[in-house]
UniProtKB/TrEMBL annotation:
Record Gene3D superfamilies: 3.90.1200.10
Protein name, per record: Maltokinase
UniProt KW keywords: ATP-binding, Carbohydrate metabolism, Glycogen biosynthesis, Glycogen metabolism, Kinase, Nucleotide-binding, Transferase
Keyword Signal found: no
Species lineage: Bacteria, Bacillati, Actinomycetota, Actinomycetes, Pseudonocardiales
Amino acid sequence: MTTAVDTLTDALTRWLPRQRWYAAKDRTPDLVHVDRVTTLLDGDPTLLHVLVSVDGERYQLLLGRRASLPAALADAAILDTPDGVVYAATHDGELMSRLLGRLHGAVDGPVFEPEPGARIAFDLPARVVGVEQSNTSLIFGDRYILKLFRRVLPGAHPDVELHRALHSVGARHVARMLGTITTRVDGVPAALGILQEFLPDAQDGWTLATTDRAAFGDEATALGRALATVHTALACAFGPRNIAVNDLSDTADRLRRWFAALADVIPELAPHGPALRAAYDRLRDARGPFTLQRVHGDLHLGQALRAGGRWTLIDFEGEPGRPLAERNAARHPLQDVATMLRSFDYAAHHGGASDTAWAQRMRDAFCAGYAEVLADPRDQPVLLHAFELDKAVYEVAYERAHRPDWVGIPLGAITRILGTAS
């Protein structure tokens, strides 16, 4: 006999690949298993917190159930059952406005804990943010923003760990962390979400850069200064765990391993293989001393907010497609510089354009701002080229899975960077 869980599993197998935050949109799941269901609210509507395993990766879902769905929630429907319609509850403001209050002080399942000194209002209206990729965020009364990590990974989460460390040293250019949602998975603590102050008047860097390119030069310089300031704070906060090295052989090995793993499944990368490996190997000839430290890990224009006359960096979780241990490891700070430079290239292609001259001006302005605080990144072209290439390779894999029409942007960048580096 087919059980309710079996029916839900079948429905999720069809529903998951259509979600923006699902990591493997390019294939139908082979195995979906419901690991845990926690009832947060009973009645009509019902709110459920669900952990599911999908082909070996674990995700969290917030599911609602109503006897009938209002028209505003029709697109959120997942499954009709004899007990009502099961749907994606993050779209339901009535349920989401009660989420933090239900999780605060919970004993089993997910638990919300405010940060020391944080006073949280649990009666604010909630709405979902609809433009994200790998996570889902909720805004509470224009005061807080809750980011729900869709993929659940046991262990220290970089977004939580880095924000706590940055605030411990009084860092500027980061939003205040107000609380976390956690649970235990396989006996190990796992972060499910992070609550932060919301900046209601903020504009993200991508919007600013693509709306008025001519005026963005000064902003790029200020953004470079902000990143260098955050790097300085991270170096201070994690001082005892920073790593001093005289060469970057381990970094070169890591980049080669990542490329090898992708080259086997992405034929577009094959023609660039020898030149990419050579660019990574040139890191071995660079001589330090170098300091490896915690970094943002996935910095781009969409993760920089301009509000109150200053830049605020957000989303310190690193690239979601990388293993958690790798995202938590010490890296060279120029990794963050390189990923922002790649973001300028994407902005230069916005709207079908290919304004490489503008991208170069933004690169120079950003690096000049960084150099006002720390060493000029342009003085390390071998490192910058290698890190930019690594990011572009990652982008090729991402675009093939999520936005195939965009794959030409990182492929073109690989060709240009290799031409410069050779």
